[in-house]
């Protein structure tokens, strides 16, 4: 694969990812320190969410870098694109860990009147909201062109809601004098993060399990390939996702003996690209007299 990256959406918008990564990483440190110092669970839960965003943005940056770097070992025949998937799995574990920590801390506060400084909550929550809005503005410009950028954009959208929750908790604590608002908002953020972690985890498992890509039915693909003039049968069809936005397929196409194999292959490749968005399809064209090809039993 060529290392030439001009025209790749991910490479074009790498500066957006890099800038957002620096902003989010820097604010994560500020929010974590302030959360520990102020005793605010809402700040700590949002800091954990931002830590997951740091991983997600870092994974997007790594993915764009890997996509531009050819394999020099000769062993990674599909490249190293799944580094993004493994990084997403790490983000899932981190998000679930944060949710569990916040839940345990909230239970530990039962029967205890917590002391929470609302001033730092309001200041840091407001700064976090500004940082997230700045990141949204940066990433929105590339979200329509790059799946990596779009994924990072959606992560920041979710974190913006967390910042709004922190500001609301700080305002409620300041207005009522009750620190239970902080605990309640923290649990709401933790639950939100846990739900998103489970959803992301399911996507990771689908990719690692080599399931058919979302929205792509194998039977529909087989029917479309069988509709190519000259094709009488389709077998050994496999479709799966290498990493987000990169779907792969293999299939055997059985043709009549007098069929134009080159024409069949060209039209079948066009079907895979045009109808299903699969750029990398390995299609084997074989005449119906070729009887030694047996469909695998697994």
Any descriptors?
298 residues, mainly alpha, Alpha-lytic protease prodomain-like, Alpha-Beta Plaits, 3-stranded mixed sheet, 9 helices, 3 strands, 64% helix, elongated
Task: Characterise this structure.
Residues 19-208 form the Cation efflux protein transmembrane domain. One of its GO terms (cellular component) is plasma membrane. Keywords: Ion transport, Membrane, Transmembrane, Transmembrane helix, Transport. Belongs to the cation diffusion facilitator (CDF) transporter (TC 2.A.4) family. SLC30A subfamily. The protein is mostly helical and 298 residues long. The protein folds into two domains: 9-208, Alpha-lytic protease prodomain-like (Up-down Bundle); 218-287, Alpha-Beta Plaits (2-Layer Sandwich), CATH 3.30.70. The protein is 64% helix and 10% strand. It contains nine helices and three strands. The protein has helices at residues 9-12, 14-38, 41-67, 83-108, 118-143, 147-176, 180-208, 218-226, 261-276; strands spanning 231-243, 246-255, 280-287. A three-stranded mixed beta sheet has the order 1-2-3, covered by helices on one side. Helix 9 (261-276) links the parallel strand 2 and strand 3. The longest helix has 30 residues, at 147-176.
């Amino acid at each position: 694969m060529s290392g030439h990256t001009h025209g790749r959406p991910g490479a074009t918008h790498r500066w957006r990812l890099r800038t957002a990564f620096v902003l989010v990483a820097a604010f994560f440190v500020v929010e974590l320190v302030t959360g520990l110092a102020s005793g605010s669970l809402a700040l700590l839960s949002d800091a954990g969410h931002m830590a997951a965003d740091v991983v997600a943005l870092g994974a997007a940056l790594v993915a764009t870098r890997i996509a531009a770097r050819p394999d020099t070992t000769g062993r990674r025949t599909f490249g190293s694109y799944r580094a993004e998937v493994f990084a997403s799995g790490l983000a899932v574990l981190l998000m679930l860990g944060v949710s569990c920590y916040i839940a345990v801390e909230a239970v530990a506060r039962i029967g205890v009147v917590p002391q929470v400084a609302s001033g730092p909550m309001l200041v840091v929550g407001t700064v976090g909201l500004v940082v997230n809005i700045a990141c949204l503005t940066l990433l929105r410009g590339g979200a329509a062109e790059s799946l990596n950028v779009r994924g990072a954009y959606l992560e920041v959208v979710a974190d913006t809601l967390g910042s709004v929750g922190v500001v609301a908790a700080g305002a409620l604590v300041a207005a009522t004098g009750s620190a239970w608002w902080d605990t309640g908002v923290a649990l709401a953020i933790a639950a939100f993060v846990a739900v998103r972690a489970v959803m992301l985890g399911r996507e990771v498992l689908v990719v690692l399990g080599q399931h058919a890509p979302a929205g792509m039915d194998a039977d529909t693909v087989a029917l479309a390939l069988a509709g190519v003039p000259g094709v009488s049968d389709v077998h050994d069809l496999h479709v799966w996702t290498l990493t987000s936005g990169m779907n792969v397929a293999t299939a055997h196409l059985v043709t009549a003996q007098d069929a134009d194999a080159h024409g069949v292959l060209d039209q079948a490749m066009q079907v895979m690209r045009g109808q299903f968005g699969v750029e990398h399809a390995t299609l084997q064209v074989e005449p119906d007299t070729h009887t030694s090809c047996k469909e695998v039993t697994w």
